[in-house]
Amino acid sequence: MTGALGEVIETRSERKQRTRRAILDAALALTDDSSLVAISLRQVAKEVGIVPTAFYRHFDSVESLGLALVDESFESLRGLLRDVWLRSPQFQDYIDGSLPVLADHVRAHRAHYAFIARERAAGPPRVREAIRHEIELITRELATDVARVPGGRAFSTEHLNLLADLIVSFVVTTAERLIEEPAAEARILAETRTQLRMLMVGALNWRSRR
Amino acid sequence: MTGALGEVIETRSERKQRTRRAILDAALALTDDSSLVAISLRQVAKEVGIVPTAFYRHFDSVESLGLALVDESFESLRGLLRDVWLRSPQFQDYIDGSLPVLADHVRAHRAHYAFIARERAAGPPRVREAIRHEIELITRELATDVARVPGGRAFSTEHLNLLADLIVSFVVTTAERLIEEPAAEARILAETRTQLRMLMVGALNWRSRR
DNA sequence: AGTTTGAGTGAACGTATGTTCACCCAAAGT
DNA sequence: ACTTTGGGTGAACATACGTTCACTCAAACT
Fold this sequence. Notes:
Two copies of one chain form a homodimer. By secondary structure, the first copy, chain A, is an all-alpha fold. In chain A, 71% of the residues lie in helices and 0% in strands. The first copy, chain A, has eight helices and no strands. In chain A, 32% of the residues are buried. The A-B interface holds A 33-35, 37-38, 117-123, 125, 132, 159, 162-163, 165-166, 169-170, 172-173, 176, 180, 191, 194-195, 198-203, 205-206, 209 and B 33-35, 37-38, 117-123, 125, 132, 159, 162-163, 165-166, 169-170, 173, 176, 180, 191, 194-195, 198-203, 205-206, 209. The first copy, chain A, binds a DNA duplex through residues 10-12, 15-16, 19, 40-43, 50-54, 56-58, 61.
């Protein structure tokens, strides 16, 4: 909508939403080569172009800003899971189909993945815990997905969870690598594909061992 | 050595060494629930009990302090590798023998492992790079170790490196978990043992697939 | 005995931090 | 038309920051 002189008219909540978005983006930009625990409220405010006090209208601390970023980052990540599962009807193609999807997601949501990688290990305690919890949920989702796959029923529930955890933690590692060395994407993907196959060969031969 | 009144006599370099040690320990203590990028030179100095300026007699920045901590942390880690290999003459027992050794090391050098886990993801850029490099070296060592194991020759050099990388990154993940949840050590070790076996079953069945 | 060296001191600097408060003023509600 | 609401302002605070500089004084060297 525009006013009589052509200027953009915003409702109150639209403007608030826009500033909030700007704060989140500024925080993502500032943590890109640092960490939440190392940036200041004032840096964020300066980056956004607001006065420090205005920050409090949106978040009551840098930590709660961090929790909001965890939320939206894992929204991205759930999108990844959805896309992966959608593209891999066959277990055989699961790996080959999934890795490019992972790479696309990491490229498209670079800031979010980098944020999670950093804060997972070094963020404020409550942020770390939130991330740990979200990853746990995703691992559970993956376990039920794998159970539906042909041959997946050979696993006990316990072992299903362990397999899912193995995959998730390795994928987390891969995402971290893609972020650290974006230029080496092709090599990283090729190596990871081989490694996941090693892992899968283990999984598929698991039943005979029990 | 003691003086006439019983007080401890220290040479100049002994005293310097002691203060340096105190600085390193103070930094480890302060980063335990934070990160190098979030602590200040003054905090470290206060923790040690020296005036901020005295810090510069030992390190010229918090970053170079970090590099020194990377060095001594990986000295601990190499000790782990040595102990693991020493205790596992049989490939079969490799996992069962190694995990308790890992747990012992993580417990004994908790601060070092926690430091690496944090700074690997969120430390100052040069510290991150130093850690990445050290992990790469250790992966190479592991690859040559695995090659000497019966059956290890079935792998191409390339695949050996990938397998070693797979193991190392998973062990890094495990160490991080042991640090985050020391109370759950028994459970974590049991789960990891099963997971490493899954991984190993894959590795041992790998040749037949090529 | 006399001199040099070097870890630790203490004051001072300009700057940045989180948080408080009273204030402004346009959109939203009446 | 008038009042309320609420995002954003700007000054002020006490505290913390990295770094400088001239200094002390005991160990080490000559």
